[in-house]
## 1
Amino acid sequence: MDWTQKIFINHSPSQFEDLAFEVFRYQFQHCPIYSDYVKVLNREKPASLTEIPFLPISFFKSYQIHSSSGKAIEAVFKSSGTGGERSRHYVQDLSIYEKSFVLAFQKYIGPPEKFVILGLLPNYVEQGDSSLIYMVSHLMGLSQSIRSKFILENTQEIPALIAAARKEGRQVLLFGVSYSLLDLIDLKIDLSGCKVIETGGMKGRRTELSKAKMHELLSKELNISELYSEYGMTELLSQAYCKHDLVFTTPPWMKVLYRDQSDPLTIVDGEISSGINIIDLANINSCSFIATDDIGIKRNTGFEIIGRIANSDIRGCNLLVD
């Protein structure tokens, strides 16, 4: 089955729900760990999206979450590991991941060929096996610029790269992990005229700041007029983006549901602080229904991330599968 013909379209709410149920049935049949988890919860026949079981994201640290359909594993992406053991996402079709992140990038940021793309993501490069590095590297290739590159130690070259891009009539797009972007303030780097996508957090390198405070600081000190954040993770193959309002918007094949923090199997309206559940249809060959460790609030048609669950554990939901 060519799932891409079904996944990457603008779904109406009813079409999304129908496809989500089709994906659920497929993964219940072909993803052994998810199937076992659903059976433990006795939810083999959910009647609505709110009854579909969401797999705790911690399972990606302990189990191989992928389809048993006979497809070979094309890549294994690993999380940054700042919390200890690294999660692993076994990807059976990289073309689905590529289509997902390219379409989302085009929708929220623009055509890759419009930019010189720089990556200020040193810890991801150093650790290797990063889905973020794979994404940014692929977008660099699509930019078709010899100046697109990862910046590791020589951050002082950024102004020269910006100047060269301007001479070519291109704008610089800088993907930066949060702590590295804050480091640029000490170097007095001027990023005026650039688009900047902040991602990844502090990774234990700096004191954590609220998203609002960090955006305010980066925009002011680095002269950034277009500052975005990317919401993505190793366990997902899709990303959400936000701008200065800090409200993330998902592409049509990705949907956020909210769960009660004291009863993680109960879906709520998200009007107050809630656990974040993600339906990512691009995860067709692993699990599309993920209970993340993030806490958020529904904001109109989007969502805001306001924190993490203590100890990154989903209480009452971490049923171990034999």
## 2
Amino acid sequence: MLSFLLRRIAAVLPVLLVVSLVVFLILRLAPGDPAAVIAGNSATNEDIAQIRTQLGLDRSIPVQYGIWIGRVLQGDLGFSYYLNKPVTELIAQRIEPTLALALGTVVLAVLIAVPLGTLAAWRLGGWLDRLLSGFSVAGFSIPVFVIGYVLIYVFAIRLEWLPVQGYKSLLGDSGASPWAWMRQLILPWMTLAMIYVALIARVTRASVSEALTEDYIRTARAKGLTERAVLLRHALVNAAVPIVTVIGIGIALLIGGVVVTETVYAIPGLGSLTVDAVLNRDFPVIQGLVLLFSMSYVLVNLLVDLSYLFLDPRIRY
């Protein structure tokens, strides 16, 4: 397995290199000038040219990329054009809300989707199966921001059960209490989990329903095992590989949903930092965040591959 890990890690480097190159070129070739944004509307052409020189934007694109990628290899993601702070410092300041939102969404989605999909597969064609089909269509069709605004209107404005927006850290002496911390994240978790639940539940239903038609299921029932044991110990366990796979693949949806959800709920995380960086043409911040998101996605997929060893003893690397 060690050789497999080394091969996968070696394969990650070209992927990240290609991602960095594509993002770098797109930002440079897209319309808009960061120097003009920083200088403001009243700046002259000389002022803009001076700022471009200070930022190194007057150099050729290959030279700019070479300087930036050399710093990245040393752990330096550069300085923000707009905020004049190291990108690593900005990411460290904003990463806690994003991790809380993402991890909480994954836990909530798995706890809801896997039992829901399993029960739907157990009673194919029943009312729960039809309800799951309708919920999946709605979950994939309705944009995340629409779900967020509907939940805000119902639970925050009309019922006044939950806060509308904002985030207060759980850490530090002046941090929020555990209940207050969870309370401010319930609506964002529910908003982001809608799409994730729809995806996982549909795959769980399909995988478990297929497993229930196998010969070992008939053998287990012939041995006198209860339906609960058949469903959990045999069908669900053997259907775990595609379920875990789609959980890993869904991280891509989760990353995109985090950006929108944090904007809707005014959460000062990496998603809102991404939006601000795009609006201000802050190239170093955008490049650093895209690299971070790409590394996270690759790492999750590596963990999913390794989990196959524990879920299916027949798989060997």
## 3
Amino acid sequence: MAHNKIITGIDVGTDKCVTLIASVNEDQSLQVVGVSAVPSRGMKKSQIIDLEKVLETITESLDGAERMAGLEVKTAYVSVSGSHIKSQNSTGVVAVATPNQEITNSDVERVIEAARAISLSSDREIIHVIPKDYKVDSQDGIKDPVGMTGVRLESEAHIITGMSTALRNLEKCIQDLGITVNDFVFSGISSAGVVLSETEKELGVAVVDIGAGSTSICAYVEGSLEYSGSLPIGARHITQDIALGCRVSIDTAEKIKVDLSNKKIRPLTPHAGESKADFSRRKKQQDDIKVSDYDNSDTDEVLSHKTITEGIMLPRMQEIFGLVGDLLKEQGLLKDIPAGVVICGGGALTLHIAEVAKRELNLPARVGEPTKLDGLVKDIHSPLYANVIGLLYYGLNHGQPDSVSNFSIGSVFSGFGSIGKLPEKVGSLFKSLLP
């Protein structure tokens, strides 16, 4: 059996749960070998509201990816988001320990730990400690101080925290499937890793990951992460607005939103010799949306394309970017991100989203495509999957990939749904019965 190194990413979102499994090639590139996306159940605004349904959702997604890859997953990187995510910047200071005053990796680890020592309430815990830059004696702006000579080492770090209960509940769901959580990764950071260029980070840029239930934001200034946060609003709110405004079901509203976003409607011009009445009739036909095309009903109700896009979708998108702008302004960052905003997540596929962002923020805006992968990527090379693709790259850069055997016994059982974890569950049962 061939042994490969693999990395697994799991994104448990409000609308969907996606699992990606990638093998690590000899040149340290990634090749996707397993993909599974299933509708989420038991999630609201990126947080768990029904543990059992979330467990079933993750099981279904994980089993699908394992069957496709032909292997059994042992560990995974898991994304987190939601309004409970907070960030702050902290400074640590240590004396250089070596007698010759040469800075070593040990000194760097100590100064990061010193920056990590912040006061937190008992219900919060640290997810990330990301060094921004270092200062050796009086010289600041240093990116890597190892090997330099100095007496005093300082580090400014960006610290991201989350609610302990939200993290533990998600971890419980993953561990109940026999999977060890390598790391929780804030969705803004994972997305930024695959949609932002180094040039944009140096200039100053913000990534806006619009999920179904929440929007994650990360702002970079002079190449360093300056701010991270989340808003409790997302693309699902646009769908709900359409459902309420047009008096249709949520499923029908989602189909209409996706279809409108995929269609490229060009402005009509009168044909040569066409009467005004005929031209008006043709314009109305283009504007008409038949509800029966989306819910397979016998209704003859007709909706207006213009009313939905300009009267319903546009105000909600303006609200989202208005809140993003308020948040960045509150942090004093709007003037520090001349490269503008890069939009990703499922909400990035919404009609005219970049144009709305440009007008609301008065900054450049573009939709971010994730870094191209090899393997089974035909359906996932989209802003929709930036977060989970970013998890794979985060694992590649920050951890040790799993060593697995292809076509393990787990892959044989996984064709039977949750029975794929049967050996572990039976082992756990016998352990619990022992005195």
